[in-house]
Amino acid sequence: MPHCRRRALIAYLCLFCVAAGAPASAATLEYVGTHVWQSSESSFGGFSGIEISKDGTGFHALSDRAWLYWGSLQRDPQGLIRDVSVAGRARLKDSKGNPLKPGYLGDSEGLALGDDGTIWVTFEGLDRLASFENPDAAATLHPSPPDLPGMRVNSGLEALAIDPTGALFTLPEKSGHEDRPFPLLKYTDGAWSRFSQIRRDPRWLPVGADFGPDGFLYLLERDFHGLLGFSSRVRRMRLTDQGPVDEEILLETTPLQYDNLEGLAVWHDGQGIRLTMISDDNFLIVQRTELVEYRLRD
Predict the structure, then answer these.
(1) How many domains does the chain have?
(2) Is 118 helix (H, G, I), strand (E, B) or coil?
(3) Is the pTM of this model over 0.85?
């Protein structure tokens, strides 16, 4: 073997060994706990969105029947949820101040809170975006989102997230085909745009989203297995003008491990990034409203 080729081969092998020995991502996800939230209120249940305060003690939870709950979470010294105290609840209203009824007009799904206290909500059925100055205020309507492939009744804009600049990001629950990416919409300054697209893995459908304190977009997805219930997964990615980068799947549960997780909030608990998820019990006695938490350590 000529010396030049021998030197090239040795250099390549050295490079391969260094690359093979390079440490992988140091991110680890650890289970924190599950709290079953119960109430006798007839409006309780069907939660599809959740927001958690920066200190982890305050919450807003949105049902898919246009009810908004808010209050506080009692945690033990280890940060586990021990009780939920409801400070108030309100039925969201339309732009004329009339309470929204469950169904086509009142199928509220995505929830995001602005730094100024504005409550942002996406709706299925009549696909739209609305904002509320407070839980008792009439809705402020915004331009209709673009009509996208796959957007039908019960498969509209279910996930909603707001970034530090106040821009809103959402995507439909279905893309029209299992091998078609999900279009990612951005809403800012009163206008919609197609910001990017997110890879779709067959059967996994997005139901919740939030931006973490690390700048990543976290996406909660679910799969339905019939009598075996639901499985869930969480993946995160950075959004760039060229599309999502640094994507990784952080969590993938087994069927029946948890209930129908639909809402996701991401915050920092002092030790790592906390993922708080809430389940939609579909107002069925065989299902539960669960608050499931994991901690991500980078």
Answers:
(1) 1
(2) coil
(3) yes
